[in-house]
Design brief:
196 residues, mainly beta, nine-stranded antiparallel β-sheet, 1 helix
């Protein structure tokens, strides 16, 4: 009986003993890379081709050339009064082509249209009629929704890439001019913006 009590007492005292467990600590770094930037490239400019044009010197009547973003759709012309202002297509043009890459997969990019502005003669006397560019349209060639029109946004594909066309409307001068259009090139610089 004494042995039983000793063993029970020994077991109880063993249970009350605390054992130190070996432990180690280390530090580590946490990091993340932010890449908000992506690549937007103009692969080809907006080309309205070769036209014959007449401007209304008063700016009251205008003619338009609509160059669609969809490459399968033909350009069209119209005039409020063909005897005063007219555009006729001699050689058709082509929409502008853009490519975007380095975007997060399937992200949607918002479009900010270029500012409507003038296309002026590269070399002509002061007062020569100019053109006005506006009414921009978009057509997605590759991306999450290929072969489709876009209005305010473009969605990229799984690789974070897309290509798209930009079309627009070219209008004859809507201001008073002292000289009609002359043979030569007319140009203007525009800014297209895409953002998350």
């Amino acid at each position: 009986m004494k042995n039983s009590i000793k063993i029970a007492a020994l077991m109880t005292s063993s249970a009350l003993l605390t054992f130190n467990v070996a432990a180690e600590q280390t530090t580590f770094q946490a990091a993340v890379t932010v890449q908000n930037a992506f690549t937007l490239q103009a692969d080809s400019g907006l080309d309205f081709g070769t036209i014959r044009a007449t401007a209304d010197a008063t700016g009251a009547q205008t003619a338009t050339l609509v160059l669609p973003a969809n490459p399968a759709t033909s350009a069209t012309t119209a005039s409020t009064d063909p005897t005063a202002a007219e555009i006729a297509i001699l050689n058709p043009g082509a929409p502008a082509l853009f490519s975007v890459s380095g975007v997060s997969p399937f992200a949607t990019l918002n479009i900010t249209n270029p500012t409507e502005t003038d296309i002026s003669p590269d070399s002509a006397p002061s007062g020569t009629a100019k053109f006005v560019l506006g009414s921009f349209t978009y057509y997605v060639l590759t991306g999450a929704n290929p072969n489709s029109a876009a209005t305010t946004s473009i969605q990229v594909d799984a690789n974070g890439e897309a290509t798209f066309n930009l079309g627009a409307t070219l209008s004859t001068d809507n201001a008073v001019s002292t000289a009609d259009y002359i043979d030569g090139t007319y140009s203007g610089t525009f800014t297209l913006q895409l953002d998350y």
